[in-house]
Amino acid sequence: MKISAVVVAAGRGLRAGGDQPKQWQPLAGRTSTFFALRAFARHPDIGPVVLVLHPDDLEADLAPEMPAVEVVAGGATRSASVRAGLEALEGRADLVLIHDAARPCVSRAVIDGVIAALQSAPAATPALPVVDALWRGEDGQVAGSVTRDGLYRAQTPQGFHLPDILRAHRAHPEGAADDVELARRVGLRVAITPGSEDNLKITLPDDLARADRILRDRDGY
Ligand SMILES: Nc1ccn([C@@H]2O[C@H](COP(=O)(O)OP(=O)(O)OP(=O)(O)O)[C@@H](O)[C@H]2O)c(=O)n1
Ligand SMILES: C[C@](O)(CO)[C@H](O)COP(=O)(O)O
């Protein structure tokens, strides 16, 4: 089966702050987008790879050393950006892995876990079980406990059969937090595969430094 990838990099990174969006800030000598893209571009079983950029970034010489990929313009929401990438792939792949450019430390093992699950499942996502106690807070006070049983922290790449996830996006242009949620809205069952603590999403200011440490600790990063 032909496996493609969509890497979404069209957000503005408001929660992370900084003088440019988080996916373009310096990280281990490159950028988060570089490392996220490279994980898919150098995988021997994956291609084509589509990079989704903010319209303002299309003309910018943001990444002279980027892996060779196709580029399309994203939209105002993550879902709109993903859909732009999926539309560009229509008819050219069987499977698609959808990944955040803001998750630069994704490993080959996490990617391969999703691909393996897609051989028998309609959709698959890496995730980590919640291990901490969970509370609801009100006015700075602990107001109650929430069971952690059966709760997971979602990661990417989220994997699908390309026609299925295109159908889900077209049926639900209102979008959702992630593609798993849209897939479930059209009735797809989504398998959970092993995630990794290293596969963090750069979201808040300190996350860049953490990702930097993870990448520099890897051999030949
Ligand atoms: N309109 C958008 C919004 C998000 N993304 C991408 O989706 C991924 C996950 O989104 P998130 O972490 O929420 O990124 P931002 O929207 O950029 O962050 P923030 O909400 O802090 O502004 C990121 O790689 C981001 O670039 C995108 O391609 N298009
Ligand atoms: C897709 C995702 O990375 C799953 O954890 C996440 O939903 C992306 O965006 P969010 O704005 O941080 O929810």
TrEMBL record:
Keyword Acetylation among record annotations: no
Protein name (record): 2-C-methyl-D-erythritol 4-phosphate cytidylyltransferase
Keywords from the named record: Isoprene biosynthesis, Nucleotidyltransferase, Transferase
SUPFAM superfamilies for this protein: Nucleotide-diphospho-sugar transferases (SSF53448)
UniProt cross-references to Pfam families, sorted A to Z: IspD (PF01128)
Pathways involved: Isoprenoid biosynthesis; isopentenyl diphosphate biosynthesis via DXP pathway; isopentenyl diphosphate from 1-deoxy-D-xylulose 5-phosphate: step 2/6
GO molecular function ontology, one term from the record: 2-C-methyl-D-erythritol 4-phosphate cytidylyltransferase activity
Function: Catalyzes the formation of 4-diphosphocytidyl-2-C-methyl-D-erythritol from CTP and 2-C-methyl-D-erythritol 4-phosphate (MEP).
Site (Transition state stabilizer): R15, K22
Family: Belongs to the IspD/TarI cytidylyltransferase family. IspD subfamily.
Catalytic activity: 2-C-methyl-D-erythritol 4-phosphate + CTP + H(+) = 4-CDP-2-C-methyl-D-erythritol + diphosphate
Gene of this entry: ispD
Gene3D superfamilies: Spore Coat Polysaccharide Biosynthesis Protein SpsA, Chain A
Organism in which the protein naturally occurs: Roseobacter sinensis
